[in-house]
Amino acid sequence: MTGMTSSARPHLNRRLAAFGTTIFAEMSALAVATGSINLGQGFPDTDGPEEIREAAVRALRDGRGNQYPPGPGIPELRTAVAAHQLRRYGLAYDPDTEVLVTAGATEAIAASLLALVEPGDEVVALEPYYDSYAASIAMAGGTRVPVTLRPRDGAFRLDLDELRAAVTDRTRLLLINTPHNPTGTVLTRAELAAVAELAVERDLLVVTDEVYEHLVFDAAGHLPLAAFPGMRERTVSIGSAGKTFSFTGWKVGWVTAAPELVSAVRAVKQFLTYVASGPFQYAVAEALALPDSYFEEFRRSMLARREILAEGLTAAGFQVFRPAGTYFITTDIRPLGEKDGFAFCRALPERAGVVAIPNAVFYDDREAGAPFVRFAFCKREEVLREAAERLRRM
């Protein structure tokens, strides 16, 4: 019969059956349909530094990167990534064997998990987690083992005993995200030291998503896990230009790790995108060499925006968890008489003209995340003030 397939089996690989259209696509479409302020998806509403945008234009005009760049990334960018890691953290990486350029951090995460995880391996991940983690673990055939960050004393905290108890003989890898999306938690030096001790003791690999490394709001700044004792040789660190330089559409990320780990990730990456973002790689190489004053001003500007939105959300009646890092604020909607984040977020555009994301999408245990809602503050200050006023009127 025309249009019928020979099998009743679903078209989508069953490992991915639980993953439909992302909540980000749904909520962004809702923002457009209702003319709402989109504080859901984490992308800025202004571009990054003009000189970096011009560097991309210059590369395009000069014919640099218009054809396939080298598989590991252009030498200029790999050198810039290595110099950045050394200057900021004292971590020395060989640009030729220990740095790999990827199509954003999302590809870096996928390639790392596909390379390092086999069917039956367990991956311990902090919950709530960025949604691509679950999909990438599923594609690799691994088993996701969540360790839940729980609200305590105004922030979401990691229970180190729970983390240790989650590790079994089948655990292959720890997937750590700090600064943490969506909660804004930044793991402390003591917590990171405990994670490192556990990884060494149980001989685990660690993948660390550090894309918000330049958005830590306290004086201590970002602490990379790879700098802790015993971690340099077992950690795959992931960074990205999109969040730091406000060019999320360029999709330029990177992996830094020991040569054998980079080789494994590159073996997968070459069959995903092969290469990407040629001219933008040249621009990001220049961006990473910007003076420290750029990174400090970027942090200061986001801190001011955090305060505008946090105060507005508090005035509107939300319980607000002020983030120690990232550009997201998680709120509890129960003080508003609400308890279902999905229903709340789907109704919010009509009620207030604002779009947010229900945190439950980042949990295995949807009930644990049900009352929490995430707002992004990587928008212009006047937009945040208007959103805060709309929410207050609601």
3D structure, described in words:
It is a single chain. The protein is built from 14 helices and 15 strands. The chain has 394 residues and is an alpha/beta fold. A seven-stranded mixed sheet has the order 2-10-9-8-7-3-4, with helices on both faces. The chain has a four-stranded antiparallel sheet with strand order 11-12-15-14. Helix 1 packs parallel to helix 12 and helix 3 runs parallel beside helix 10. It is globular and about 55 Å long. It starts with 22 loop residues before the first helix and ends with a helix.
Key terms:
single chain, alpha/beta, 7-stranded mixed beta sheet, globular
Quick description:
With 394 residues, the chain is α/β, with parallel strands linked by helices. Helix content is 41%, strand content 16%. Helix 1 packs parallel to helix 12 (341-352), helix 4 (104-116) runs parallel beside helix 5 and helix 4 (104-116) packs across helix 9 (259-269).
Strands, count: 15
**pLDDT < 50 runs, ≥5 residues:** none
Helical content class: 40-55%
Structural class: alpha/beta
Distance between the termini: 54 Å
Number of helices: 14
Order of helices and strands: HEHHEHEHEEEHEHEEHEHHHEEHEEHEH
Main sheet?
A: 7 strands, mixed
Quaternary state of this entry equals: single chain
Beta-strand percent range: 15-25%
Taking strands numbered 1, 2, ... along the chain, how are they ordered across the largest sheet? 2-10-9-8-7-3-4
The outline comes out as: globular
The average pLDDT score comes to 95
- Radius of gyration over all CA atoms, rounded: 21 Å
Topology:
Elements: H1 23-34, E1 37-38, H2 50-62, H3 75-89, E2 99-102, H4 104-116, E3 122-127, H5 131-140, E4 143-148, E5 150-152, E6 155-157, H6 160-166, E7 171-177, H7 189-201, E8 205-209, E9 235-240, H8 241-245, E10 253-256, H9 259-269, H10 278-288, H11 292-315, E11 319-321, E12 328-332, H12 341-352, E13 354-355, E14 357-358, H13 366-369, E15 372-376, H14 381-393
Parallel strand pairs: 1-13, 3-4, 3-7, 7-8, 8-9
Antiparallel strand pairs: 2-10, 5-6, 9-10, 11-12, 12-15, 14-15
Helix pairs in contact: 1-12, 2-10, 3-10, 4-5, 4-9, 11-14
